Amino acid sequence: MITVQNLRKQYGDLVAVDDVTFTAEPGRIFGLLGPNGAGKSTTIGCISGLLKPTSGRIAVLGHDVVIDSIEARRELGIVPQELALYEDMSARDNLAYWGAAYGMGGDALKKRVLEVLEIVGLGDRAKEHVKRFSGGMKRRLNFGCGIVQRPKVLLLDEPTVGVDPQSRVRLLELVRQQVAGGACVLYTTHYMEEAQELCDRLAIIDHGKVLVMGTLDELRRLMGEHDLVRLSGRFDPAAARRGLEALGAEVASADEQSLRLTVEGASKKLPAIFSVIAASGGEVQETSLTQPSLESLFIKLTGRELRE
């Protein structure tokens, strides 16, 4: 339902999205996982037609988003990262406004508004002004505005940012409901647990480039038996890097306070790692070890935490 081919978006000398290619299918969730500033929202903006690609091609339901933008957007729902709500209007009126924007009207629109209010758990707050809502309630209403027209393709740009745990659980369940109904969902996030819990396929993106793509199992296999080791303390970064790489570790990042490395069978090699660091003049104060995971793959590829 979504086809992206060699997408590039450039602002002057800044390349926000660089040669991104993927497809997303009906009844599935395709995830774009990456830190803030990776190019996720720009990709969503190009697919939705809000941004014009510098080059490449995007099609939604077979319609080119540049050449045939009206048809491409007709079956498209968008839940933006920034709230697209009118705070001086009621929840019901916000939903009615966005439904009307998609050509809905009359009794069909009134019925659908009531349905969506119940779906997002705001049936008892229908007439209340949005400015009185909590952050989680606003996020749920924002989601409702994106599905009021029953879209076949749904773009979700970090829909759970800044919400309480209860609202996050509700929002993730709402996503699953859309997929169960046959919708194609493109989901961007920098939350590792959401990507692992929701996505059928995903791409790890950073600096505008897709680093790897596949199912969760496929991406995990790329790590093999490599564990992620985090060390904090006092280090000589250059000396520690030389010693650790000689030991067979891949150093993702190194500075005077922290080291992050991927090591095959790390639990058996921790004594040797500590010895190398001590010999390089460093001191380990805290250690954590994570088994092979999507997070360890990301840090191996980028040297960065997902939440940065």
Keywords:
14 strands; alpha/beta; elongated; single chain; about 40% helix; 2 domains; about 300 residues; 6-stranded mixed β-sheet; Alpha-Beta Plaits; Rossmann fold; 4-stranded antiparallel β-sheet
Description:
The chain has 308 residues and is an alpha/beta fold. It has helices at residues 40-48, 69-74, 91-101, 106-119, 135-147, 165-180, 192-198, 216-223, 237-246, 266-279, 294-302, and strands at 2-11, 14-24, 29-33, 55-60, 63-64, 76-79, 153-157, 184-189, 201-206, 209-214, 226-234, 250-254, 258-264, 283-290. The protein has two domains: 2-220, 3-Layer(aba) Sandwich (Rossmann fold); 225-291, ACT-like. Chain A, domain 2 (Alpha-Beta Plaits, 2-Layer Sandwich). The chain contains eleven helices and 14 strands. A hairpin with a 2-residue loop joins strand 4 and strand 5. It starts with a strand and ends in a 6-residue tail after the last helix.
What's this model, at a glance?
The protein is an alpha/beta fold and 308 residues long. It has 11 helices and 14 strands. The strands form 3 sheets. Strands 6-7-8-3-9-10 form a 6-stranded mixed β-sheet, with helices on both faces. The protein has a 4-stranded antiparallel β-sheet with strand order 2-1-4-5. A 4-stranded antiparallel β-sheet has the order 12-13-11-14, sandwiched between helices.
